[in-house]
Amino acid sequence: MAAEKRVLILHAPGTNRDGDLAAAFQLAGGKPEIIPLSELAKLDRLGDDFGLLALPGGFSYGDALGAGQLWAIELQTRFSEVVKQFVESGRPVVGICNGFQALVKADLLPGNGHRATLTYNQSAKFECRWVTLTLNQNNPSGWLKGIERIVCPVAHGEGRFLLEDNLTLSDSQIALKYSYSDGSSADMVYPENPNGSPSGIAGITNPAGNILGLMPHPEDHIMFYQNPSWTRNKNEKGKYLGLSLFKNGLAMI
Amino acid sequence: MLSRHHCEDSRKVFRIEISSNLRQRERQLQTQLEVIGIGGYQLPEIQNIYFLKGDLDLPTVKRLTEKLIIDPVTESYAIEQVKHRVVKNNNPSNNENSVEVAFRPGVTDNTAQELLEAARRMGISNILGAATGMRYQFDPVMNPLEIEQIASKLLVNSTIQRFSYQKIYPEFINTTSNELPVIETISLLTANETRLLKISEERRLALDLTEMIAIRDYFIGIERDPTDAELETLAQTWSEHCVHKTFKAEIKLDSGVIIDGILNRYLRSVTEEIDASWVRSAFVDNAGVIAFDDQFDLSFKVETHNHPSAIEPFGGANTGVGGVVRDVLGVSHRPIANTDVLCFGPQESGEGDLPENVLHPKRIQAGVVSGVGDYGNKLGIPTINGAIYYHPGYTANPLVYCGSIGIGPVDSHPTSPQPGDRIIVIGGRTGRDGIRGATFSSLTMDAQTGEVAGASVQIGDPITEKGLIEVVELARDDKLYNAITDCGAGGLSSAVGEMSSKLGANVDLENVTLKYQNLAPWEIWLSEAQERMVLAVPADKVHELEEICSRYWIELSDIGSFEESGSLKVAIAGTPVVELRNGFLHNGIPDKKLEASAIFRDENYLPASLNISPQQVNYSELLIKLLSHPNIASKEKVIRQYDHEVRGSTVVKPFSGEKQDGPSDAAVIKPLNTAGWRGFAVANGINPLIGESDPYYMALSVVDEAVRNLVAVGADPDRIALLDNFCWGNPNRPEILGSLVEAARGCRDAALLYRTPFISGKDSLNNEYIGQDGKHHAIPGTLLISSISIVPDIRKTITMDVKQAGHLIYLIGDWRPTFVGSHLARIDIAVEGKFTQKYRPPDLSEENIQVYRCLYKTIAKGLVTAAHDLSEGGLAVSLAEMCLAGRRGARVNLNNVDLSSIQTCFAETNGCLLVTVSSENKNVFEELFTPLPCRLIGLVSDDKILEIVNDSDSLIQLEIDQLLQAFTGSGKDPSHGS
Fold it and tell me: Is residue B697 classed as helix, strand or coil in its secondary structure?
């Protein structure tokens, strides 16, 4: 019998997509457990117990002082040892939306020696809409294996990925890009690219490929009926689900 | 007396200025400046300011700034140590065209609070206070009068903020004090009638003479004067908000008829007469409850937060959402979806159209929308349904209806506190928030009085409420409490008072955790500080609850016990504050009697119908005008600021269609954690324009609309529950009360016709604003009906967008369009002799329910590919919306409809929908609808042109792009390619 694939889903004050993410990992065949940061302090090692670490979306600490900022401080101070141990062991880590923001602000992403940020959308508004994502075939990360396209919602106000000193991210670290529904690059076109990220970057990996961070919510497209087009394109029912991403993550354990 | 405690200390204060290199906010502000007529200047500069107080040195502040505050990629900073300067002359002319804005002391500053806690976690413990602010630097050539205008119109809300044209100095609220609590005794025993009224007025008790006399007589009976806290407790418990005096009052109509209370006669009686087995709880608890399936129940509540939103739109709407979500927690449910219906003054209002001291409707809308979004988004509750309505009557009195739907296991909500149970408060701390907001907001506030004044406005803290949601769910599942309620209006006085009404309670206010000291006992007792719940917890379970709370960063305080004493007893440090008998507190309120004038004159029935030849009018132009009317045009720019996807349960979303920009009729939700394919649908009906002509007909129409919207997505018409929500003017004016009675009568007639029970309701009266001109600015009587129903199999639901060329278009339902309250009557059209004929609008047809049942059946059989209800703007607008959503044209011939073309296209009717059916299902669909009204009027075409003809007359011919442009105001079809 295959070992249980235990997934540690962190819950900071203000985290709110932990339930959605747990449902996605569950459906993908994992065994997710949601653990509040207050409880994490009691687990001295993440190493032996969990195969995958996930940071879900939400508004940790109300996003005071910037999205994910204070959660990042927690990851860099109170929990720096456990997180470091987990990341360096090569096990898969994923941060979605607020979780991605926290990973970036904690310098775990892009992890190439340069600082980055996820800042205010170019529309200067919170944006909730469905987007099409194409996965970068030049990125060798196990998270992306065999997936061409995902359709899922975004829901964020700070999702524009910028690197310090106007640097550009190496192509092999780009994981997902905003596209038109036919898969062609949307680059900077609004609203297909809802936040104005340069080159339409929606998600990235660290150079080792075990950490994935992305703004959109593949965990909110795990059932056909979540797709807004399901009443129109009945023959495409269940296409472009986000579920495959979570299956890939579990396969990396 | 309010204590003013000023403590000068010698701690250092550092000021940190943060600049962003993105220039986004600056460009946004420049656009706003142009809107108020200030243009042609160079881009302003905006900086965030942070203040830190404590025994700190520069390197520490630097480290803290770099680590915690700035975004190193986009921001830079400057730090300086500042000294308190008394600014004598706050005048823009003698400095450099800058404005600095900060909160008034005591106003909840969540960012400063988080900063303080994060700094402590970083090990910087000698930090005593934090505050935030903004700095705006304008073009030096700008004239000082313009700076003043910008500050007052765009940058500052003086209710919660203060500003300076020089460097602003932070006001930190003191957190320590050794002042003794002050309990005031009010001389009531000897007060005559004039004095009684004066006391009520001075303390803003809103109690009338009869009520004041009843209170005086009670205290004569117990031979002592009341304390301030006792009087305030009675005022809260007997308030309109808590006991719905007007809705329970005996009303004498001018016809001589006596109504034994609106609530019983017209609303509660409906629920009792229908006696549906699936209604679990109606009108008695914090929210109405219906059955979902064998395992779960659903709860639904809609509240209003109108006045707070008028004076501080963001905070008012923010705490409106927070309040209704706590109502759902108050029935032990997990909130899973929110709704919001907003009514504003016209966005294009000129400054001259506004009553004095009224915020511009644009500013109100912007604040309310971000307030709703901020709270709902942060809680992770999808905002799934709503509406925005514009009318000049809402300029001074915006309406903010916030709704929330919850889910919980069947029979999991305990409602009986037991003697000996501890009174446990969980959640946020208690401050002056919301205490007599009305009194404080009318004070002139300066830096001195600001210490107490600003605090009267409620600012939400959604992150604490998020923690409460987690805690309540776990505590419920572990059966840790015997009763629960939220702290809303009246604070602890209402919550504890209500819970102990059948027992009694002993409360010690010393155990209430406070945000800051110096609160008078009555303030602690009455504070409306947000994000608090009160639970009755058996003593041996308090520890377990405490553990759950600490897991989610929630504070708990044990403030007393429930006792079988029949009295509410409150003390502080051993000194009695309140001692009232339950019998008097809860049943001592004198019955109220009111008079109403409910006679309606013929001239109310304007405008009715219109007979003109098609040659007189350009139908295409009218349709474009209607589609771009603010009440009809797309609200997408607002709605996309709300997260409607979180929880992964939104099956039919606010928008439908090829590019998801067609307005859906109802939202459909499939909770992620329930078995099978069962879901539920949520919709609403609102139409104040009809109410201006005929409030009875308005009620029929909005009940019908709320029902029609649900059946349009495939919800079960025999499982619909309704919520009533009345926002009216002053009910002591007989004509206002008369229209309220008429609307309530309409609710009853419509709900009985459809067999739809009411499960909850709310009334917000006195929505009038007395301007400085002494004139009353009253809202149009506005009835919101919210509706919820079951969708047995969500895979069968349909959306409103046309799907494929060749699908047939049917008009179903009782087709009796009128121009009463219609939007056509409101738009400017130059037609000779329009709208002359007087006409009483029709009652709802008894056939409607059969039509809805038949539609339900045909949708369930998969025969219907799209359905959309006919509402504002009539048939043409409805058809245009279906076409633009599906990016396909339609060809419709109205020769099958025996009315004038203009009435057919644009008049508004109840009971009708447009549906599309594939041609292979034509016969079976028509057979199922026989003999109900069902007219084949056209088909979906394979081009992108909407064409409506009446035999040989071409009425409308428009491209989909033209419809989209009018509807979205975007100017172009944003779709990629063709």
Answer: helix
Confidence band of B457 (pLDDT split at 50, 70, 90): low
Residue B959: the pLDDT is 98
Q: Is A97 a catalytic residue?
A: yes
CA distance B834 to chain A (A): 42
d(CA A37, nearest CA chain B) in Å: 8
Q: Which of B52, B115, B463 to mutate to test the interface with A (most CBs of A within 10 A)?
A: B463
> What sign for the dihedral angle of Cα B563, B567, B570, B571?
negative
For residue B933, list its beta bridge partners: none
CA distance B42 to B30: 9
pLDDT of residue B610: 58
Token readout for B546 is: 């405490």
Identify the bridge partners of residue B680 per DSSP, sorted by sequence position: B669, B790
For strands B567-572 and B650-652, give the pairing. unpaired
Longest dimension (CA), chain A: 51
How many other CB atoms sit within 10 Å of the CB of residue B153?
18
The angle, 0 to 180 degrees and rounded to 10, between the axes of the packed helices B848-860 and B922-929 is: 150
Beta bridge partners of B287: none
Q: Which residue has the tokens 């401080």?
A: A73
Note which residues in 673-712 of chain B have CB less than 8 A from chain A: none
Residues of A in Cβ contact (< 8 Å) with B22:
119-120
Residue A204 backbone dihedrals phi, psi, to 5 degrees: -140, 165
**Residues of chain B neighbouring A20 (CB-CB closer than 8 A):** 646-648, 672
Instruction: Inspect the interface and report whether the beta carbons of B552 and A38 lie closer than 8 Å.
Output: yes
Q: What does the alpha-carbon distance between residue B145 and residue B152 come to, in Å, rounded to a whole number?
A: 11
B442 pLDDT band (50/70/90 cuts)? very low
User: 3-state DSSP call for residue B163?
Assistant: strand
Query: Does the pLDDT of residue A109 top 90, yes or no?
Result: yes
Measured in whole angstroms, the distance separating CA A131 from the mean position of its chain's CA atoms is 14
Short-list B780, B765, B763, B733, CA closest to B596: B733
Whole-angstrom CA distances from B297 to B290, B293, B335, B942 are: 6, 7, 12, 45
DSSP β-bridge partners for residue B727: B764, B782
**B66 compared with B515, residue with greater pLDDT:** B66
Question: What percentage of chain B exceeds 90 in pLDDT?
Answer: 69
Rounded Cα–Cα distance for residues B53 and B15 (Å): 9
> In the predicted model, what is the mean pLDDT of chain B?
89
Is B73 an 8 Å CB contact of chain A?
yes
Residue B701 CA to residue A36 CA, distance in Å, equals: 48
Contact of B121 with chain A, judged by CB distance below 8 Å, is answered with yes
Transcribe B35-81 into DSSP letters. HTT--SSPPPEEEEEEEEEES--HHHHHHHIIIII--TTTEEEEEEE
In whole angstroms, give the CA distance from residue B57 to residue B11.
Answer: 11
Strand duo B483-486 + B532-537: pairing? antiparallel
| CA dihedral sign, ordered B777, B783, B788, B794 | negative
Which helix (H) or strand (E) is B561 found in, with range?
A: strand B556-562
Q: Please report where in the chains the tokens 């889910």 appear, as a residue.
A: B407
ipTM of the complex: 0.97
Q: Which two tokens stand for residue B676?
A: 């099978």
pTM of the model: 0.94
Contact A204, A114 (CB under 8 A): no
Give the list of residues 6+ apart from residue B555 with CB closer than 8 angstroms, or none.
B426, B427, B428, B429, B513, B549
| Neighbouring C-beta atoms of residue B121, cutoff 10 Å | 15
- Residue range B123-179, pLDDT digits in tens: 888 888 899 999 999 998 898 889 998 998 889 888 788 899 988 988 776 555 556
**Active-site residue A217, yes or no?**
yes
Q: Among A11, A74, A97, A152, which one carries the catalytic annotation?
A: A97
Contacts of A36 in chain B (CB under 8 A): 551-552
- Calculate how close chain B gets to A47, using CA atoms only, in Å: 22
User: Within a 10 A sphere around the Cβ of B379, how many other Cβ atoms?
Assistant: 27
